[in-house]
Task: structure prediction
Amino acid sequence: MDHSMRLLFLPTRRNMEGEFFCNIDVALNRKKIVRDKLDQLGIDYVDIDFLNDEGLLFNGMDADRVAEYAREKHVDAVFAPHVNFGSEDAVAKVAKRLDKPLLLWGPRDDAPDAMGHRCTDSQCGLFATGKVLRQHKVPFTYMTNCTVDDPTFERTLRQFLAVAQVVKALRNLRLGQISVRPEPFWSVKSNELQLLERFGIEVVPTTLIELQAIFQDTLKNENKILDDMIASYRSRYAIHVEEDRLRNSAALTRSIRRWADEMKLDAIASACWGPMRELGNVASCFSFSELTEEKLPVICENDIHGAITSVIAQAATRWTCPSFFADLTIRHPENDNAELFWHCGVFPSSLARKDQRSSVEPNFDEKRPCVAHFELKKGDVTLCRFDCSEDQYSLLMMEGKVIDGPITEGTYGWIEFKDWPKIEHKFVTGPYIHHCVGVYGHIAEILYEACKYIPGLKPDFTEPTEEELAARLR
Result:
């Protein structure tokens, strides 16, 4: 998946000119101030200088030209600063044609001069544009009216770019499926056709027989690559498994990566029980851990919704942080608001506590190599779950922090919330299951805002509340 993010810089003015109100020179100066700020922040953007001498949008008849140009330049989102009152119909027409996330904003207006003259009235125009966007049924994000040097500007712009990253990821998602779900796991059932029709998500299947052929070829022909992988394991982990099992685990990791690269996959939902464990006589958990560390999430028990969640979560961080896939398992023995988030050994290694030595071990049930074993590092986390019930898709989001708790096997972390029983009831009563995805940082407002641009996906809240999330976006 292409992780880049390119803005269409779409400054707009009113289609009129006066000595004071809607003065062209003032509008052009404001455009320069905003452009300089985008350059300072290192934002990748394309402008509309091709359109006219001013490089400003003020005529709705230009919407088709602008939209065509933006598509040619592969823009992912639109930023429409109103450098004076702006042109509400022109902005709405461009946004409707592009169907990309839209950020609406205007610079804070100067006070009237000594004679009472005003040049811009940008805020007034923003009210008008918001109305027309709703008439066109165009979703948009609004940045509070401020100067470019106000902290609100950079914060909201970066939040918006993360939102656009989620939308881009979901609209272009290719998801691998290795084998089938475990028979008892009815909770991970999904509707492949509906995912394609509603969200454009492609599911690309393969069988264990096909993966086994890649595995055998990898063992035979990629010795140098496997040697380097094993050296990396030894530099990061205490190894408590046999050398041949470690090599087979590396070969499984490499085989899945080869298939994923060939199929251009963004995440994978995979079998991990039974026959998968016979492939190389190893547990697949450590392979899933290593691939997720590379930001190719591989999700256990063929949980397709879990794999989709992992892409959403990583995109919300703008691909700066790998996700971790966890079971909700038991309550903390002493803290009523904390829960054990655990899985056999699949969390990515960069999320481990640095004051403890991570290890590679046999798994907890069959004692078959290889799984990662470590505790999550302390810090704020966001947990989420994409799921469906009764034909309605929703995205659950909640925020907590990793705290101390008893030692256990596999990869795990004890996470504290303000009101765990509220979350517990949410998971049991649905439409969610015992699986969720976590990333470091508090980013629930990104997930909340992204749902605005994904038809058919409803945001669902526990902690924070909807009003708290809306306040962050202001």
